[in-house]
């Protein structure tokens, strides 16, 4: 009975969420042609050279509409070759977190010398359901994630934790960030069950997510290889 109630509570967690808006603003690039920057938000990289240019002032922007409210990790890199994807030697010039608030638009400003600042302004939010009708996939909110994590963490048996996450993945409109999925998958044991859910969860990732990051929650090379094959990743 206890498990049934907790499973029901897990489903209640998936109420209509509100999406938040964040803007990354690279400034003064025309005055610093040899300087390029990359903003990394929980594994998603945004390069200054591929941002949308606005006017002739050297300002380039990214508009991000799929982040849930709550805290998000932010890293800013300075680079000389437009890419830090495969350069482990590049050191971050900024490493902290920022908070997306309900009904607020957050602007992340990266100056021409790499200085980082934040600004906020009121936002008229659009519901998750409205975004989905427009074809925009939204991750579950931080409140939903925290509730789901708590429901799984409070289980004494691996079977119940598996059932809660499995049921959450049965909802076709539930999408997750890599951070959310890896945190939830880390609660699943044995690794064979974790592999089953990781394969299932791959269709619930946001399009911008790097699916290969799911490999991080596995210690078995055999399971990593199996997941890589499922995801179509070449080792």
Short characterization:
Helix content is 30%, strand content 25%. It has helices spanning 2-12, 128-133, 142-153, 158-169, 178-185, 191-201, 221-231; strands spanning 21-26, 36-41, 44-47, 52-54, 59-64, 70-79, 92-100, 104-110, 116-122. The strands form two sheets. The chain has a five-stranded mixed sheet with strand order 4-5-1-8-9, with no helix packed on it. A four-stranded antiparallel sheet has the order 3-2-6-7, with no helix packed on it.
Low-confidence stretches: 1-19, 82-88
What is the total tally of β strands? Answer: 9
Order of helices and strands: HEEEEEEEEEHHHHHH
Strand content: 15-25%
Q: How far apart are the termini? A: 45 Å
Q: Could you say which structural class the secondary elements and strand pairing correspond to? A: alpha+beta
Shape assignment: globular
Mean pLDDT: 78
> Any idea what the radius of gyration is?
19 Å
Order of strands across the main sheet: 4-5-1-8-9
The count of domains is 2
Q: Report the major sheet.
A: 5 strands, mixed
Give the proportion of residues in helices: 25-40%
Total helical elements: 7
What does this 3D model show about the protein?
The structure is a single chain. The protein folds into two domains: 111 residues, no CATH class; 105 residues, Immunoglobulin-like (Sandwich). By secondary structure, the chain is an alpha+beta fold. The N terminus is likely disordered. It has seven helices and nine strands, in the order H-E-E-E-E-E-E-E-E-E-H-H-H-H-H-H. Helix 3 runs antiparallel to helix 4, helix 4 runs parallel beside helix 6 and helix 6 runs parallel beside helix 7. The strands form two sheets. The protein has a five-stranded mixed beta sheet, with no helix packed on it.
């Amino acid at each position: 009975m206890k498990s049934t109630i907790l499973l029901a509570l897990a489903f209640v967690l998936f109420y209509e969420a509100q999406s938040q808006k964040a803007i990354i603003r690279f400034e003064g690039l025309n005055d610093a042609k040899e300087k390029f920057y990359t903003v990394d938000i929980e594994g998603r990289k945004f390069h200054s050279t591929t941002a949308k240019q606005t006017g002739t002032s050297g300002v380039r922007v990214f508009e991000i509409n799929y982040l849930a409210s709550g805290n998000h990790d932010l890293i800013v890199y300075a680079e000389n070759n437009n890419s830090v994807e495969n350069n482990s030697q590049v050191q971050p010039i900024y490493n902290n977190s920022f908070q997306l608030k309900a009904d607020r638009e957050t602007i992340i400003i990266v100056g021409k010398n790499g200085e980082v600042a934040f600004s906020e302004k009121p936002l008229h939010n659009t519901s998750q359901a409205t975004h989905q009708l427009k074809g925009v996939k939204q991750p579950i909110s931080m409140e939903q994630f925290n509730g789901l994590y708590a429901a799984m963490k409070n289980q004494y048996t691996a079977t119940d934790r598996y059932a809660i996450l499995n049921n959450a993945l049965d909802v076709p409109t539930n999408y997750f960030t890599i951070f959310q999925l890896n945190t939830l998958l880390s609660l699943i044991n044995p690794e064979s069950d974790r592999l089953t859910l990781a394969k299932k969860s791959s269709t619930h990732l946001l399009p911008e997510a790097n699916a290969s990051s799911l490999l991080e929650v596995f210690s078995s090379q055999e399971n990593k290889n199996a997941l890589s094959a499922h995801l179509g990743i070449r080792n």
